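Practice problem 4.
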């Protein structure tokens, strides 16, 4: 078991960079509308080489001369005479969102004095699920997961990049205690949680129970849904407001949430400890929160800041939309401004089959679906030249990666024929909140321009705009695999090796939509933020999508709900560490 201890650390060289002159350029380039002021530069404790490094201000143009990106350059510190209110508390949390709220609620439950800075006017919108392993709600239903296999499999799928096997183990071991605690919170207000398998609900093409699905995805279907007071779940079309449950639980126990007050700066004292966080309220006044036990950064991702996102993963620039545009990397930047280290690259939480018309636009008709009918199923799939792209039976998010790493525009075409219902194996997904795989929906999609129809393959290629020779050659090769029953290029399950030979023929173009990025400040097994030398910065913790050290450049599609699940659990553990509570 582990208890909290305090380590001192050397200060990073980058923590000394300041310079008000670069703030305007940085804000313009990095989209820092919600981060109108910056970090307090740490003071050197000795006359070392770090103290001799020129500041951005001395360099003249800041980022260009210092070799830093605009968002890495710390703006001028906010002085004490600019502070209109100072608050002393035990714990400060930046972000009343999916990751931060469990930690906030636990701290309140333990009697800690907690203040939260939240950029938006309310707590974050609830996502569809959480995730964990061998929690009581799972084992009571005969659902168990193997620790050894989980850790080694996730290590493989992330290519051993950035994430640590020890962190995967920490999540696996502590997820059950966390989920059991969360269930108690939900039950205290008449709600509950339930494993996905119990509801029978299947997300479009997620591989859970789908005939012929590639096992690459279905290994860790550990999603856990929320149940409302009437016993309804996502399977009934109800997305329970569980973030509201956590926010109310915390505030009822004395937590103060400062809405419309983004965190804009962290403060380190002369010993190197992060002691305070400064927020800017909606009238532009600064408040300073001194936190004696620690500060948790749970400010969300950087998907709303495309320049910053693209720097950490160029391929994500081929994605089309962001669910939370207010998430602009604020927490990551505040950490870097006081010397924290950052992941080398980020991953994306992606939805792979978003239907678009010939102009690349999503249809606005009320009878349209996010995914065009049939296009999300394991049919023949090609890129914009007509080349086959992937094993099409990789379900859901796994299909995103080839489309943004192996194509020029991040899009792909799904192709099928009019005899698809007769050819497809029994048990294919008929649809959910994202799609409806029916002949009727195909007609709607044709009308809305997201699906094209043709009487010949040549005409279809012309309507798709792909190279007819490449497309025909690839289709002929694919038909050879269908005839032999073995896909020698991608090893797609033979159940889905169906020919395209019955007119009329159909094709639908789809792109990748991003909901958030996964990647941020490097941290240790105790969720403490690390500096450039790999040492923990005292007093500063991180969780959720602000945190790094967990994913590589690919969000592991075989661990469903891992972003929410591990982000929540780690915020919960960060608070335990601050309070000196034991955990596994």
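Answer key:
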């Amino acid at each position: 078991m582990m208890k909290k201890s305090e380590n001192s650390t050397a200060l990073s060289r980058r923590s000394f960079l300041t310079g008000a002159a670069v703030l305007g350029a940085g804000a313009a380039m990095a989209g820092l509308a919600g981060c109108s002021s910056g970090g307090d530069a740490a003071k050197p404790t000795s006359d070392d080489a770090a103290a001799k490094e020129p500041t951005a201000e001395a360099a003249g143009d800041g980022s260009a001369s210092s070799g830093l990106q605009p968002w890495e350059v710390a703006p001028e510190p906010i002085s004490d005479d600019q502070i209109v209110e100072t608050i002393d508390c035990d714990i400060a949390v930046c972000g009343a969102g999916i990751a931060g709220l469990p930690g906030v609620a636990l701290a309140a439950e333990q009697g800690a004095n907690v203040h939260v800075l939240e950029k938006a006017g309310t707590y974050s919108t609830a996502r569809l699920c959480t995730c964990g392993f061998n929690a009581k709600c799972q084992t009571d239903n005969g659902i168990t997961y193997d620790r050894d296999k989980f850790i080694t499999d996730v290590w493989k799928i992330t290519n051993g990049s950035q994430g640590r096997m020890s962190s995967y183990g920490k999540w696996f071991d502590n997820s059950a205690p966390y989920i059991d605690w969360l269930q108690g919170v939900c039950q205290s207000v008449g709600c509950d949680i339930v494993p996905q398998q119990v509801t029978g609900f299947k997300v479009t093409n997620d591989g859970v129970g789908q005939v012929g699905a590639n096992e690459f995805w279905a290994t860790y279907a550990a999603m856990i849904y929320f149940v409302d007071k009437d016993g309804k779940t996502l399977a009934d079309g109800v997305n329970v407001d569980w973030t509201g449950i956590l926010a109310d639980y915390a505030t009822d126990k004395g937590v103060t949430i400062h809405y419309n007050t983004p965190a804009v700066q962290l403060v380190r004292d002369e010993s190197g400890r992060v002691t305070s966080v400064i927020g800017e309220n909606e009238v532009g006044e600064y408040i300073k929160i001194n936190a004696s036990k620690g500060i948790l950064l749970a400010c969300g991702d950087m998907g709303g800041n495309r320049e910053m996102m693209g720097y950490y993963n160029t391929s994500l620039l081929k994605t089309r939309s962001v669910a939370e545009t207010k998430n602009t990397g604020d927490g990551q930047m505040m950490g870097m401004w006081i010397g924290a280290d950052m992941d080398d690259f980020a991953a994306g939480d992606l939805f792979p089959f978003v239907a678009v018309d010939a102009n690349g636009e999503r249809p606005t008709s009320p009878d349209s679906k996010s995914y065009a009918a049939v296009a999300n199923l394991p049919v023949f799939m090609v890129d914009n030249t007509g080349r086959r792209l992937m094993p099409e039976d990789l379900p859901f998010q796994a299909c995103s990666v080839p489309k943004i790493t192996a194509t020029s525009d991040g899009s792909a075409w799904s192709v099928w024929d009019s005899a698809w219902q007769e050819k497809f194996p029994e048990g294919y997904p008929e649809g959910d909140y994202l799609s409806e795989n029916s002949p009727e929906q195909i007609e709607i999609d044709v009308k809305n321009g997201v699906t094209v129809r043709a009487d010949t393959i040549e005409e279809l290629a012309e309507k798709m705009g792909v190279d007819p020779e490449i497309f025909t050659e690839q289709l002929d090769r694919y038909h050879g695999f269908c005839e032999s029953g073995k896909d020698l290029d991608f090893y797609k399950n033979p159940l889905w090796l169906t020919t395209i030979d019955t007119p009329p023929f159909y094709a639908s173009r789809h792109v990748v939509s991003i909901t958030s990025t996964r990647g941020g400040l490097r941290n240790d097994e105790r969720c403490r933020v690390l500096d450039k030398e790999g040492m923990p910065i005292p007093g500063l913790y991180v969780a959720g999508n602000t945190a790094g050290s967990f994913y590589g450049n690919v969000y592991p599609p075989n661990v469903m709900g891992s972003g929410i699940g591990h982000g929540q659990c780690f915020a919960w553990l960060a608070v335990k560490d601050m309070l000196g509570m034991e955990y596994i």
